[in-house]
Amino acid sequence: MKINEETQNTPVDVDHELPQGDASGDSVSTQPTELDKLKSENALYLDRLARLQAEFENFRKRNQREQTEFREYALTDTLKQLLPILDSLDRAAKVEDVSTEDLRSGVELIDRQFHDVLTRLGVEPIGATGQPFDPSLHQAIQMVETAEVPDSHVIDELQRGYRLRDRVLRAAMVRVAQNSSK
User: Fold this and answer.
1) In CATH, what is the architecture of 124-182?
2) Could you report the average pLDDT of every consecutive run of 10 residues in the chain (182 residues)?
3) How much is the pTM?
4) Hey, which of 37, 79, 147, 162 would disulfide with 169, CB 3.0 to 4.6 Å?
């Protein structure tokens, strides 16, 4: 074999030379292990993600089920407190030959029972008669010309209003004074 004299005398460019291959192949074997490690780490994260998604979905379904159950049975305690009033009404309806006075006292007793239950539940009547008209508490049904009551004050209550703690359940239906002499 004849070697070219030019190639023999050319200096070797070390900066651009490719590294010599190692006989043991270490550089080749480390790359696949890093790749394998990254693949297994990726699979681990995907598995964790899938489990977290499943847990979240189970939580969401359980929470929705609990809310539905709460809505269905939220009135249980309230209804238990109202049942004695219903029993009193049933007993009153069965009584025969009762005087008007006895009937009246029985209805008053049932009315007192009912108001006691409402008070225990946090329901209170809204005061209206003689109070200044407040549209957040009162619903004006009629304006009445009068000089006997101050302007924009409630003359009388046609239907009682109620509030539960700080929220109006039903506004009181009222008649309001209007003084045109102002």
Assistant:
1) Roll (2.30)
2) 55 58 52 86 95 97 94 86 92 88 92 94 92 94 90 93 94 92 58
3) 0.59
4) 162
